[in-house]
Each structure stands twice: as structure tokens, then as C-alpha cells.
Amino acid sequence: MTFDLNLKVKVNLFMKTELKTNIIYQVFPRNYTLEGTFNALETKLDYIKELGSDILYLLPINEIGRVGRKGSLGSPYSIKDYYKVNPEYGSIDDFKSLINKTHEKNMKIMIDIVFNHTSRDSVIMNEHPERMYHDKNGNFANKAGDWSDVYDLDFNNEDLINYLVGVIEYYCSLGVDGFRFDVGSLIYSSFYKKLKEMLDAKYPSTILLCESVDSGFISYVRSIGFNALSDAELYMLGFDLLYPYNNFNELRTYLDTKESRYLDMYKVLLNYEESYNPSNNLRIRGLENHDQRRLCEYSKNKTLIKNLAAFPVFMKGPMFIYNGLETKADHHLDLFEKDQLDLSIDIEWFNYIKKLIEFKKNKVNLDLTISEVLTSKGRNLGIINHYKDGSTSYGLFNLSTSMSNNGVLIRDEKLNDGAYVDYFTSKIVLIKNHSIRVKEPLFLFKATDIENKKYNN
Length: 457
Hints:
Structural class: alpha/beta
CATH class of the largest domain: Alpha Beta
Distance between the termini: 24 Å
Number of domains: 2
CATH superfamily of the largest domain: Glycosidases
Number of strands: 19
CATH architecture of the largest domain: Alpha-Beta Barrel
Number of helices: 15
Oligomer: single chain
Radius of gyration: 23 Å
Shape: globular
């Protein structure tokens, strides 16, 4: 396989098969600009596009409820009316304009959909209370979790399912290209089946992303008598992308405790995640989002942060950029108040993220079939990417939490000795005795015969 280190892939409208090389840029409209509006976001589209983005993904855009509101502005995940946009963001015509302008930039647009629950003063609750979940005492309630500003919907109600499918059809008609389903594992399969029928008939290119919950939460939900869909079920129901939450707790615990046993568990679980799902499954890659801490909140160790940003990019699946990752933002945005994002550029970091984006968009990743994780112990992460033509590449990462962070030794029988080209530096790197010392991230591809000869001379 030939790997072009200087390849720049032209961003254009794409089919689902090209999701592997896509960049999904997540924006919280309230806090992305000073104005916090759709119109102000339009002025940032050139910046988002030039970064390399293929999909603009927005946190919920709908009207927010007032009963039980958290903070002065409320959570965008406490929705009053699915058919109305948040007036603080602008009008429905402003949203349509944003859709059109995004398409003019050859990007797609995805929005957050929150169908597990509504605000406690929602249109559904007031007009059709029978569509809301009631506990054994007949009270509005949550099936799982204790969210004070929302109540759950009842997916045993066929009218509710038809209504919500209509909501998706409405936004598709406006030009929305994809949807991210909040806590999508808790929504019933009967809804997804009906949704897929509609999309296949009218909008077959629609991209579906699920916030699939972690295995611990699935077990908890099932233990209290409710169902939660497994990742395999979600793929079979039509989702193109799932979150990588099955094992995220282990990585987060390692970063918090610095105990390497959690990192060892993380490596094993990454392989289980891949092997126990359909062979064409895709995960959205990236560690930052509106629910998770910034990379810089875990550590001030610059080398560790570079490696944490890099390893998800190397793995199969599109790259997820939560607004501000590219500028090394170290502040977790408030979900309930105005908290404007600082997009001041750290040029060295910005260029590094651009280089990661350039790699993800390389067409070589279209042929990536599986990312196999090395399970040898140590404060490192080794990944073997396998391609359709039988070739491989190595992603090698230093996950030492030590502030000195002078590198880690990775030794594994699956590391084949020889000379390789590092994507970042274009330098020859040698693996000897199935071992290599790693400080900065390495994306290694087999060197050509000429390069081997020059190196050996």
C-alpha cells in the first residue's frame, strides 16, 4: 500500500462509506460566539471549514423549558417543543439560512435530538400527558437517572413514536443531514425501526449517530427493570456511528488515579468492543465533548496531552472535534449559563491538530478495516491498523502520566522489526527486537525498499 504523506483530500459532499475520513465539528451555539446565535455562527463557517470539517454538529437547538430550569438559561437537553428553535439563537428562518450556508461550504449539518425525555413543561406533557412515562404511582418520572428538569417519554405509546418520527422528517425536509441521539441506548427499538422505514423511503443518506451509553449504565438500567439497547443492537437498527463509551471509564480512571491496571483493562476492552460488533462498525473518535472534561483538565503534561489527542485519530472511525480542542481550550463550558468559548489560538497546538486532521482525511483510511490494540502491559498504547490489501501500520503512543515524561518502551511480539516512516516527521524509525521507545506520537508506515537501503547504508 502506498501512503502519500502530502495528500490533501478535497472536502465534498460524501456518502456514508466515506465517514471513516470525516471530521465532525461539535458546536454549542450559545457559547461559540459572543452573540450566541445562528447568524453569528454563520460568520464562523469559513473557519470551521478551513480547519478541515466535513460535518457541523450542533448541540440541541430547540426551545428550552422553564419548569425546574437549571441555571439562568437552562439545559439545551431540557426541550419544551421539538418543532421550535430556541429564540435566543434566532428564528427558524435563521436556522434554515445556517443550513444553506453550511451546504454552500460543502459541509453537512447534524443536530442533537433529545427523545428520551422532555422538559417538565413540554408541549407533549401539556397536550398529551399519556405519551409521558408514569411510575407505579401514576406520577411523571424518570426511568433511570435523577434529572430535576426533565421527565421521560413513554415509547410504549404508538402515537408518540409516530410523532417523533415526524419530528425527524420535518428537520430532514429543512435540509438537516444527520442526527445525534442523546442517551440513544434508552430509546426503544420500535421507534428506531419506524424511523428507519421513513428514512430509507425518503432520506436514505441521513447520518445517524448514537450516544450509546457505557456497559455499567446498561447493567444498572436493566437491573431496575427497564431495557437498554446494546451496541450491536443499535448497529442493527441502522446507526452509522456510536460513541466509544464502553471502555471510556477505564481510561478516565487511569488518568485520574495514575494506576496502570486501568490502562491495561482499557486496552483489552478496546479489542472486545471491536470484535463483538459488526465488522463494518464505526465509532466516533475523540475524548472531548460537552459531557467530558477537556484534555488539558486531566493533566498539564504537554506530551501526554499530545498523545491523548492523537491516538483516537489513528483508530478506525471519524474524528470528533469539540469546539476549542483545536485551540487547546482548558475550560469545560457551562451547560446552563452563558460561558463564551475562548478561541485564541496556540499556534503550535493548532498546527498539530491540523496535522491530525490531515491524517484522518487521507484516503488510506477508507481502506482501514480494523484497529487492533496491543494488550502488552505498560503506560503506553499500541495500535495496529489493518487495511483491505493486507498491509498494516502502527500507531504508538506514550501515555505516561509522569511530568518528566521522557518516553515509554513498547515491546510486543506483534511489532515487526524493520524500518518505518513516521507520518509526522517523515523520518525513518526503527523497530528492533519487537521493541521501540516512544515519546511523541508515532504513526508508522512501512518504508520503501529505497528508504530501507538508504537507512541501512
